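Fold this: UDP-N-acetylmuramoyl-tripeptide--D-alanyl-D-alanine ligase
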Amino acid sequence: MVTITEIASWLGLDVTDERSLRHFATDSRSELTEGLYVPIQGARVDGHSFIDGAIDQGATVTLWKKGIPLPDADIVVLEVEDPLAALQHIATRYLKLVSPKVVAITGSNGKTSTKDMVESVLKTTYRTHKTSGNFNSDIGMPLTILMMPRDTEVAVLEMGMSGFGDIEFLSRLAEPDIALVTNIGESHAEHVGGRAGIAKAKLEITAGLKPDGHLFLDGDEALLAGVTGERIGYHHTNTFVIEQAEATFLGTTFQFAGATFRIPVLGKHQVRNAAYAIATARALGVADEVIQAGLDEVKLTPMRMERLVYHKTAVINDAYNASPTSMNAAIETVAELDGYPTRVVVLGDMYELGDQERELHASVGKRITLPVSHAILVGAKGRYIAEGITDPSVVVEFAETVDQAATLLRPLLGEQTIVLLKASRGVALEQILTDLNKI
């Protein structure tokens, strides 16, 4: 933990207060007992207006923009030119003070699953701290760093983007020892000029990479072909090759770089994510048998290829988010699992695809062929998926809402059925599970 005195000194302020801080937040409604509140000024909302709420939540200190009237309340005020910049600065100083090995993770898909796997493997050997939830932005990552225990040995930091420069900023702040680029998809394509722009933006993760650091990347991605790094993938020309992945509903077994591993997770794309974790752990000196022990304990963030059973029906809940790349991978997983005569994909809208959203939805439809038997398509954009389905053996049905999708799904449930749920976050497709519980 960090003290108020330390934060003040890093900001060039003369404040003596040895109280330690346990919580850090920009939202006045968050847990702030013994905490630092950072008011952010947005286009519509000024966080300074909510200082009373932050104090009610237990905040003991706040960063405060100079020129704004000071709060008339019992709280330590550290006046700064820019609270967000000050937050980022103190996070940088604290990271240097703790001095852990830093593993930075970015990519269009798989960031969070890879983060979970890396953390599960490394915590077998090191005191490890990872990004919580989607705290992967210029606000979220500094908060993640400040929540890091003082004895942390490895920090696993997820880095997100909405445009050029975002990941470069985060990389320079964190100065990673190991950087992972999981893949190049389509999300945010409208902001950076397509997939080539996405690749360029994701590779900004190398901006702060230490000179002797490792860069692990998707070796099967043509857009990364000219990048110097350690390549991971299924093609035999990669630095580290994945082979013979075999999946059941209980998990996947595969060979990677001369050894056999297993994960309690479905999907070839998740095998690649596990391979990143293995390569990272090996780079930090963890033995393969210890790595496997960590993989055995992997618990992915909910709604990411989550295996569930509802009314004797196998369900893959991958409804946290979606892009064409991740949706295709999930459909492939369902198609490869044996023992299910009825295979249902419930798919919904994908967002942030730009001008090509109709074509990209239809490209997913091309992947829906036998042995997938049913496709339930949810929402206006979900209907575009049907434009790509050419296999007449697939039963295609449409739903305007998640409730309607549940109604269509209900007659298909049973021991010989497997169901995939996949859509962008705004669709909230996982609500189907709530409806199924009402049966």
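The chain has 15 helices and 21 strands. The domain at 99-296 is CATH 3.40.1190.10 (UDP-N-acetylmuramoyl-L-alanine:D-glutamate ligase).
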